[in-house]
Specification:
The structure holds three protein chains of three kinds.
Chain A: H1 5-17, H2 27-50, E1 56-60, E2 69-73, H3 75-90, H4 98-119, H5 123-141, H6 147-178, H7 183-188, H8 196-212, H9 222-228, H10 231-255, H11 260-282, H12 287-306, H13 310-334, H14 348-351, H15 353-367, H16 373-388, H17 391-419, H18 433-451, H19 453-467, H20 470-478, E3 483-484
Helix pairs in contact in A: 1-2, 1-4, 2-3, 3-4, 3-10, 4-5, 4-10, 5-6, 5-10, 6-8, 6-9, 8-10, 8-11, 9-12, 10-12, 10-13, 11-12, 11-17, 12-13, 12-17, 13-15, 13-16, 13-18, 13-19, 15-17, 15-18, 16-17
Chain B: H1 3-35, H2 45-55, E1 60-61, H3 64-81, H4 98-104, H5 106-118, H6 122-153, H7 158-168, H8 174-177, H9 179-193, H10 204-207, H11 217-242, H12 249-269, H13 275-298
Chain C: H1 4-22, H2 26-45, E1 52-60, E2 63-69, H3 71-92, H4 94-101, H5 106-124, H6 129-148, H7 153-183, H8 188-194, H9 200-218, H10 227-232, H11 236-246, H12 248-262, H13 264-267, E3 271-272, E4 277-278, H14 279-298, H15 304-325, H16 328-359, H17 375-389, H18 395-409, H19 413-438, H20 454-472, H21 475-487, E5 495-496, E6 499-500, E7 507-508, H22 509-529, E8 535-536, E9 542-544, E10 547-549, H23 563-569, H24 576-599, H25 606-624
Antiparallel strand pairs in C: 1-2, 3-4, 5-6, 6-7, 9-10
Helix pairs in contact in C: 1-2, 1-5, 2-3, 3-5, 3-11, 3-16, 3-20, 3-21, 5-6, 6-7, 6-11, 7-9, 8-12, 9-12, 11-16, 12-15, 14-15, 14-19, 15-16, 15-18, 15-19, 16-17, 16-18, 16-20, 16-21, 17-19, 17-20, 18-19, 18-20
Classes of the chains: A mainly alpha, B mainly alpha, C mainly alpha.
Chain lengths: ~475, ~300, ~625
């Protein structure tokens, strides 16, 4: 059995070692270190994935739960954990100057924190990793070192810091009511939280974790940050970081707050997110802001999906989240040199035919053109909503469909510009090869997803079955089956 | 039916229509003359006119389509007559019915419009634009009438319509059963004949007779023939729908001529409406009458 | 085991790369025309009587997804491949050479056409709701390829189209998931079996969502605004293909889901306000208004392509009307009109594009007198407009006649009158089209124009033959229509070769056509054999008002052609739909500004506090309530 904790430790270590390589003569080491560590982490996680039989818990530092710090390894966590090093690797900021090294180091830090979030089995631990990720994000948001980037990062910092305070309050409230922060232990005590106080605690957690999950209404930092930073960072934050924050919310929802009211709150905020994000994107004049707002809308759909009860909700949520991870990262990569007004994109397809074609592919999948995976993810959400069938869910269904129509309008506005004749022969620059390569890989992944949709869905079924089974979680962690280190 | 018999009918029906039409033109002129205290033309004057027009020395053609338009105008009516049952002869009326007849009678108008169009005379084009507008005006009440009659008799087959009326006698005639529709039909008839007050598309003083502006010699002769057919078709269709058709030739001809007396008299007593007033007029009263009539048919 | 349907789909799929490969040379394009012939042959080999199943079937996310083609789909598929083949042939010769030099991407054009055909075949061969939706969406997006190719005005029209199309698609999507929730499966049979036991609420939702979604594609009112410009500005083959068949996919959807799966008996359960109005009644009026209003919009157009585009919208109303009336005559008329419309609309658009090819414009105020220059194109357009106007002896008359008859027999005199109003409007409008293009004054700059090349005229004239033959002998098509009717569970029409035999009024087009031509013959004999000889004058030798007109004076009567009519009815054109659409867009813009305002405020962190407060309030409210 391989040690998944290394997947957290290694990048963390790398994050601190990397700045040391900034000295002359060690550049080659610095160039290699980050990718190597991430690749190693990915390999470790992949090995764990292939060898996976049943969920298990790891008690760090030798203290048995509920007292010690716990890692919980199941398919859901592993899937998201695996996505972290892979995506980070794909979006790795190259270069060997000082700024680049700082950014690389922050990326490693972010990867470590996010992997930690995916595997954490303890509420406080989750919070710590979340904070770590947040710190890394601030740095990344400001990494392009321009005026707008600093302003945007500061906005982000303000919201995020306030959100963290609220989260901490929520955690305190939970601790006050139950006396524990271990998720498994909390799962056994979830009835104690089935009152307004408990719900208030959930709401506070939601607001705090929601900042990164682009949850309405604490997502106002999103468009500025994505527009001002490098697109690789935007892709990392929009594609990856947001998903892990969502995962944290989902874990809490599944284990600690399996109440209808909590789901309804999530559904409501998700629906509002879809509506506000898509509406704002409709009038966006520049490509990155448009994608940022679109991403808010998409994350709204993710949250709506996870608000669905039972296995169906989890399957739908994971599908939408993973699809969005792939598609939004790729779209941000492709938009790297397409900043500024949409109208300036005229003729971009002549300069970069492959890039434009990939953009169209991802946009179509985002809109849910069958048989691309975007269709199936939307299908899972919508059929879940229709099945659940209360008024609020039908409303959400309508809003998601309306959002798709609006999305179609603005994405097609970009696409038609791409293929329009260039104005005064000014053609936007072609894509850089690494971006094109990375989005090409993601496109292959997307197409593979379209072909292998049924096996993937079968796999998700198994994943969801174990992830939604609270009993398994509780018994694994508390039943003494944990591995102590 | 034996094929020879059918062939004879198909030949005779247009021929009869033409001859009767000639007399209808004569009647029209006579009535006009009497209203204007004149004696009017002699018996064969319409025929003389046609012979004269065909025999003219100067025959200006503006191209093949100009000529073919006249062919279509005459030929379309020749064909249409075989769909209109007369006493003792049904022709191919059972294979068409009133809707087909309605649309078949648009073919001559289309032919005329094509011919005029080729002439490249703006007055002609204006005339056609007005004529088509007038068609839109009178056909709306007319199709209301057609719909009512078809509903009432439960068929679109003109032969059946006639048979039903003749079997039941005068109280089953369309006019007795559906007086409102019959009245609306009279309005439509006036428009269909293109007589005052609905003759803006000819308007000799304004657009130099409109569609006819480039028509001379046998072109005009063809249109003359077309007018004979037009008078005949309109009146016989009205007789068929509302007055029990023809039990025999005497009553058939009597009814057919009688139907025309009123529109023709009106024509000579009225000035003309402007195009938009034609529309207002025909879309108002006959349509209201027709819709009321439909209500009665439906109930 | 690969069946005939798989062969067809494979052929259509294989032809896409071939199209991209071969579209740039003349012989290559003729090869592609041959590829359509092959597809057509494969389609003919499918037995229309029984449903042909595809070996292609998947188990996707718990749904069995498969393809099969019954007589209904087959009928539409024949029209689809036929339209594409004629469009491809029309463009194969000089048209492509000229337009390719002007910068049109021939590879995209031909590949786009073939992608459309494949998408439509997939839709027409759908065997369950998943494959239906796949086909539906592919068809919508494939159409976009052809629309976008022209650039310029086409871009705006395409953007508008795609928003409508996605809205329609998402409505269908909603119908799909609600069906699944209601009947527990996405198989066609499941809905068909469960429909009688569904509650009216559920049934309303399902029927309405599907019908609304499909109506967007048909451009039924009030979703009619997008279609005419979107189809009109596409390059010639695209325009003729889209105008012929694309919108009819919506009709296919309605026939399949509403008529076949939900069924007439269930549709009749759906009534509003104590049985006074029901869904079908409502739809018949929607159809009638779709037939009338766009026709009168068409009449005002000055661009020949737009004029035809608007008529395409209007004719869709007839088809919907026939299918919704759904008795044996009406539904046959509606379905037959799909074929008829495809044939004459293709001719008309081809003729208009032939004129554009030679003169460079479709502006009805910049043409005229071309009959002597382009006689074959004129002939084609003449036959086309007789078909479109629905006059005998062309095929458009037959299908309209069947619908009229159905309306009268079923006791809908008002609907009948309304459809005739639409036809009359069409007559006026198409005469204007013909007159302003081919009749009247020839412009000096067009004096040297020649007939369109044979590669363009031959397809048009072949289609003219089809229009004429199927007009004279509608039984040729009616046999397939009858099979399609049976496939969707309707009573098949009783037809004869010449038309319809019915105790309450028959139609035998063989006789009508024969007698009409005999009449023309007599007319010709009278005209040419009797009387003096006529003398032809030159086309430019004209006078008016007793004054000779020189050719450089413009006296063509074309603009505001129906001045008198417009004087009366212009106040009725209120542009309410355009207004509503732009109001909706403005409202969306306002909502968008509001949403942006939220994200762009100076101090977003307060929203953490506001959010917390609101949620706490909600919690408190929840605690108390």
């Amino acid at each position: 059995m391989t040690d998944v904790t290394l997947a957290v430790v290694l990048p963390l270590l790398g994050a601190f070692l990397l700045p040391l390589t900034a000295h002359r003569g060690l550049h080659w080491l610095g160039m290699l270190l980050g990718p190597a560590l991430l690749a190693l982490a990915a390999l470790l996680l992949f090995a764990t994935w292939t060898a996976f039989e049943s969920p298990y818990a790891i008690a760090l530092g030798g203290f048995a739960p509920p007292l010690g710090i716990t890692f919980y390894v199941d398919l859901l966590g592993l899937l998201f954990a695996l996505a972290v090093p892979l995506t980070s690797l794909l979006l790795w900021p190259g270069g060997s100057d000082e700024a680049a090294i700082r950014q690389q180091s922050l990326t490693l830090l972010l990867a470590a924190a996010l992997t930690g979030m995916a595997l954490s089995g303890d509420l406080f631990n989750l919070y710590v990793f979340y904070e770590l990720a947040a710190v890394a994000s601030y740095g990344l948001a400001a990494s392009s070192a321009t005026g707008p980037a600093f302003v945007a990062a500061f906005r982000f910092l303000l919201i995020s810091a306030l959100g963290s305070v609220v989260t901490l309050l929520g955690i305190a409230l939970i601790y006050f009511k139950t006396g524990t922060l271990n998720l498994a232990h909390l799962a056994t005590l979830s009835e104690r939280l089935a009152d307004p106080q408990g719900l208030a605690a959930f709401a506070m957690l939601l607001i705090g974790f929601g900042v990164k999950a682009e949850l309405f209404p604490v997502n106002a930092w999103v468009p500025e940050v994505y527009a001002a930073t490098g697109k690789r960072v935007a892709a990392l934050l929009a594609g990856l970081a947001s998903k892990l924050a969502v995962l944290a919310v989902v874990r809490i929802l599944l284990l600690v707050f399996p109440h209808d009211e909590a789901r309804q709150l999530l559904l409501l905020l998700g629906t509002l997110g879809v509506l506000s994000g898509e509406l704002a994107a409709w009038q966006a004049r520049d490509v990155t802001r448009m994608l940022a707002w679109s991403s808010i809308g998409q994350l709204g759909v993710v949250l709506v999906a996870f608000s669905l009860p039972g296995k169906a909700g989890l399957i739908a949520g994971v599908t939408v989240a993973m699809h969005h991870l792939v598609v939004k990262s790729a779209l941000f990569l492709l938009a790297d040199r397409w900043g500024g007004a949409v109208d300036r994109l005229k003729g971009a397809a002549t300069a970069s035919p492959l890039g434009a074609a990939l953009f169209v592919l991802f946009a179509l999948s985002l809109l849910g053109l069958p048989p691309l995976p975007g269709f199936w993810s939307k299908y899972l959400v919508l059929s879940g909503l229709a099945e659940a069938g209360s008024g609020m869910q039908h409303l959400a269904l309508g809003v998601i469909l309306l959002g798709t129509v609006i999305e179609g309008g603005y994405l097609l506005r970009i696409i038609t510009r791409l293929y329009a004749a260039p104005e005064r022969d000014i053609v936007p620059p072609a894509h850089r090869f690494p971006n094109l390569f990375a989005s090409g890989l993601l496109a292959l992944l997307l197409v593979a997803g379209a072909i292998l949709i049924d096996p993937l869905w079968q796999g998700l079924n198994t994943l969801a079955a174990s992830a939604t089974d609270t009993q398994v979680y509780v018994q694994t962690v508390l039943g003494g089956k944990g591995i102590t280190r | 039916m034996h094929w020879a018999e059918l062939l004879a009918e198909l030949t005779l029906m247009p021929l009869v229509a033409f001859i009767v039409g000639l007399f209808m033109v004569l009647m029209m002129r006579k009535i006009g003359a009497r209203l204007q205290r004149r004696i009017g033309p002699p018996l064969l004057q319409p025929l003389y006119d046609i012979v004269k027009l065909f025999g003219k020395h100067t025959q200006t053609s503006h191209g093949l389509l100009h000529e073919f338009g006249i062919v279509m105008a005459v030929g379309g009516y020749v064909a249409a007559e075989t769909l209109l049952p007369v006493p003792g002869m049904n022709g191919i009326a059972e294979k068409g019915g009133m809707i087909t007849l309605l649309y078949l009678t648009m073919i001559p108008s289309l032919g005329l419009a094509l011919g005029v169009g080729q002439c490249a005379n703006p007055n002609g084009s204006i005339g056609i634009s007005r004529a088509l507008t007038a068609m839109l005006a009178y056909d709306i009440p007319f199709v209301i009438v057609i719909a009512g009659v078809a509903m009432h008799f439960g068929t679109t087959n003109l032969v059946d319509v006639v048979a039903q009326q003749q079997a039941g006698g005068i109280e089953t005639w369309g006019a007795t059963q559906m007086p409102l529709l019959a009245l609306a039909g009279l309005f439509a008839l006036q428009g269909m004949l293109g007589k005052q007050p609905f003759e803006i598309y000819v308007a000799p003083a304004e657009i130099a007779t409109g569609p006819m502006v480039e028509m001379g010699g046998k072109f005009l002769g063809g249109l003359f023939v077309m007018q004979c057919f037009q008078l005949y078709t309109a009146s016989v269709l009205y007789v068929t729908l509302f007055l029990g058709g023809g039990e025999n030739w005497v009553s058939f001809l009597a009814k057919s001529f009688a139907v025309l007396v009123l529109p023709i008299s009106v024509a000579f007593l009225f000035p003309r409406y402007r195009t938009e007033d034609v529309l207002t007029m025909l879309w108002k009263w006959p349509v209201i009458l027709g819709l009321l009539g439909l209500v009665f048919v439906g109930s | 085991m690969i069946g005939a349907l798989d062969m067809l789909l494979l052929a259509a799929l294989a032809a896409i790369p071939l199209s991209a490969l071969f579209a740039t040379t003349r012989s290559g394009r003729w090869l592609l025309v041959a590829a359509y012939a092959v597809q057509f042959g494969l389609l003919i080999m499918l037995q229309p009587a029984t449903a042909a199943h595809s070996a292609l079937s998947f188990q996707l996310l718990g749904n069995a997804v498969g393809w099969q083609m019954d007589a209904l789909g087959w009928y539409f598929a024949v029209i689809t491949i036929g339209s594409a083949g004629f469009a491809a042939a029309y463009a194969a010769g000089e048209w492509s050479e000229v337009n390719g030099r002007l910068g049109l991407s021939l590879r995209w054009l031909y590949a786009g056409l073939q992608i459309n055909v494949l998408a439509m075949l997939l839709l027409l061969a759908s065997g369950d709701f998943v494959s239906l939706f796949i086909g539906w969406e592919l068809t919508s997006w494939a159409g976009l390829i052809l629309m976008l190719l022209a650039g310029g005005d086409a871009i705006r029209a395409s953007l508008r189209y795609i928003v409508y199309a996605i809205a329609g698609g998402m409505t269908v999507f909603a119908g799909l998931v609600i069906t699944q929730a209601a009947v527990g499966s996405l198989q066609f049979d499941a809905l068909h079996a469960a429909a009688p036991s569904l509650g009216t609420g559920r049934l309303w939702a399902i029927a309405l969502l599907f019908i609304l979604g499909f109506s967007v594609k048909m451009a039924s009112m009030p979703f009619h605004l997008w279609q005419a410009p979107a189809y009109a500005y596409s390059p010639a083959p695209g325009s003729s293909f889209l105008g012929s068949i694309s919108a009819r996919m919506g009709l296919f959807g309605i026939a399949l889901v509403a008529i076949k799966l939900i069924g007439l008996a269930q549709l009749d359960r759906l009534s509003l306000v104590t049985d006074l109005v029901d869904l079908r009644g409502l739809l018949t009026w929607v159809a009638v208004f779709t037939a009338i209003l766009p026709t009168f919009v068409a009449m005002r157009q000055n661009d020949a392509r737009l004029l035809l585009g608007w008529h395409g919208v209007g004719q869709g109303g007839y088809m919907l009307l026939g299918v919704i009336i759904a008795d044996r005559l009406g539904s046959a008329g509606g379905l037959l009109h799909v074929f008829n419309h495809a044939t004459y609309q293709a001719i008309l658009l081809m003729a208009v594009f032939a004129v554009i090819h030679r003169t460079g414009t479709a502006d009805l105020n910049r043409l005229g007198g071309l009959v002597t220059r382009m006689p074959l194109t004129f002939l084609a357009m003449l036959i086309g407009i007789i078909g479109l106007a629905g006059l005998p002896p062309m095929n458009g008359f037959v299908s309209k006649w069947m619908i009229y008859r159905a309306l009268i027999v079923d006791g809908h005199p008002l609907l009948f009158v309304a459809t005739v109003i639409s036809t009359l409007g069409t007559v006026l409008s198409v005469y204007k089209l013909l007159h302003n293009t081919f009749l009247g004054q020839l412009r000096l700059e067009h004096e040297q124009i020649h007939e369109a090349p044979w590669s363009m005229t031959v397809p048009m004239l072949l289609l003219c033959v089809v229009v004429f033959v199927t007009g004279a002998a509608p039984g040729l098509v009616l046999q397939y229509v009858a099979a399609a009717q049976q496939a969707i569970g309707l009573e098949p029409v009783r037809y004869i070769l010449g038309g319809i035999e019915s105790p309450t009024g028959s139609l035998d087009m063989l006789w009508i056509t024969a007698i009409l031509f005999a009449g023309f013959g007599i007319g010709a004999v009278l005209f040419y054999l009797i009387g003096g000889r006529s003398r032809r004058v030159h086309q430019l030798d004209n006078y008016a008002g007793g004054h000779f007109l020189t050719a450089d004076v413009r006296y063509q009567y074309s603009d505001n052609f129906y001045a008198g009519l417009m004087h009366r009815i212009r106040p009725w054109y209120r542009g309410s739909f355009e207004w509503t659409e732009s109001a909706l867009v403005s409202a969306l813009g306002a909502a968008s500004t509001l949403a942006r305002g939220f994200f762009e405020q100076a101090n977003p962190a307060q929203w953490v506090l506001v959010g917390t407060t609101v949620i706490m309030t909600w919690v408190m409210w929840y605690a108390l309530g």
